[in-house]
Amino acid sequence: MPVVNRIAEFASDMAQWRQHLHTIPELGLDCHETSAFVTERLREFGVDEIHNGFARTGLVAIIKGQGDGPTIGLRADMDGLPIEEETGLAYASKTPGKMHACGHDGHTTMLLGAARYLAETRKFSGRVALIFQPAEEQGAGAEVMVDEGIMDTFDISQVYALHNAPGFEPGGFFTTPGPLMAAVDTFHVDIQGVGGHGAMPHETRDPVMAACGVAQAFQTIVSRNNYALDDLVVSVTQIHTGTVDNVIPDTAYINGTVRTFDPKVQDMVEQRMGEIVAGQAASYGVEATLRYERGYPATVNDPEKTGFATEVARDIAGDARVVAEAGREMGAEDFSYMLQARPGAYLFVGQGNSAGLHHPKYNFNDEIAPVGASFFARIVETAQPLA
After folding, report:
1. What pLDDT is recorded for position 1?
2. What is the DSSP letter of 368?
3. Which residue of 91, 185, 195, 330 is surrounded by the most CB atoms within 10 Å?
């Protein structure tokens, strides 16, 4: 079946919800206005239970089906990004320096659309738990909600989520079983040298040269320390040092990201970075320290649940518009914590041609919201059919 007819009937309402949410982007765990809007809509829809206060502003809503059965979880992220919007839209962000540049306003809307339909029809057994999560971009809201016990409290047996994908056919789906997105770590290197006059470098211990040496040596981890078939990205993204052209500074700072799938590769990178920092510090006569912070783990789809979700996607979009073995990518997602706690799947739904994610001109495509809502609804009805 294509988009659920009833959901198509209120597509214009979904567009209004999404465009309102676009005007009020919030960051991290502090999605207060967004959470209040979601709560108000859910009450209007007549869901059975609303539990607020998870991960500060997250919430879980329960809709009961007809008859006994398990509880299936559906998750949407709610937070925005610290980006100045450049879309020029009539419903652009009202908050300077914040915008929905990743489509979480659309993800929230898709789950709201599914909630409205499921609360009206209840053509499923058991229960559905609607998980509205803050802090996907920063703060690991999914980890916080899992640690606060949502999976056990609501007896969730499996869990699913969607993300929009610019550049992919609108309303099409893609995913892959097993590892889908990488673990993400962050590294910081603080270098302490001895500054001085730029014309007298022999009187200094130059942190700038040491920073350049560390940054270049880090790139050899991928090319010389890692097996070529084990996916790994090491990117130096910041070097901060110095103030003027004729002064060698005292300090330098290096920052960047590491993406892996295998914990053994992760361990190797952290070890090699420590060795490189120590060696380069000795070579340049400076002091240097490494802080290596492990972030979101790899997002790993359960193969069985991914196969099931792919079949549901085919029912909505058609066989030709669903890619079941899309391969993995080096982006990261904190839904990984929920997939560690329960089997499930994470899929992408095509957004069409638009600015890329995290771009100041990005805008979610309202035409795909009914597609995502239909996917969520059909996941529930197919996984937990009426007796």
Report:
1. 56
2. G
3. 185
Contact assessment for residue 113 and residue 7, using Cβ atoms and an 8 Å cutoff: yes
Residue 195 in contact with residue 285, Cβ under 8 Å? Answer: no
- In sign, the C-alpha dihedral spanning 296, 297, 303, 304 is negative
Would you say the C-alpha torsion 223, 227, 233, 238 has a positive or negative sign? negative
- E strand segments, the chain: 49-54, 58-64, 71-77, 127-133, 156-166, 173-174, 178-181, 183-192, 196-197, 232-241, 247-248, 251-260, 287-294, 299-301, 322-323, 344-352
Q: Residue type at 77?
A: D
Question: Interior CA angle at 155 toward 153 and 159, to 5°?
Answer: 110
Sequence letter at residue 365: N
pLDDT of residue 2: 85
H or E stretch covering 133: strand 127-133
Which of 330, 354, 380 lies closest to 164 in space, CA to CA? 354
Beta-carbon neighbour count of residue 317 at 10 Å?
22
Four-way CATH pick for 183-294: 3.30.565.10, 3.50.50.60, 3.30.70.360, 3.40.50.720: 3.30.70.360
**Tens digit of pLDDT for each residue in 111-130?**
999 999 999 999 999 999 99
Length of the chain: 387
- Strand, helix or coil at 106? helix
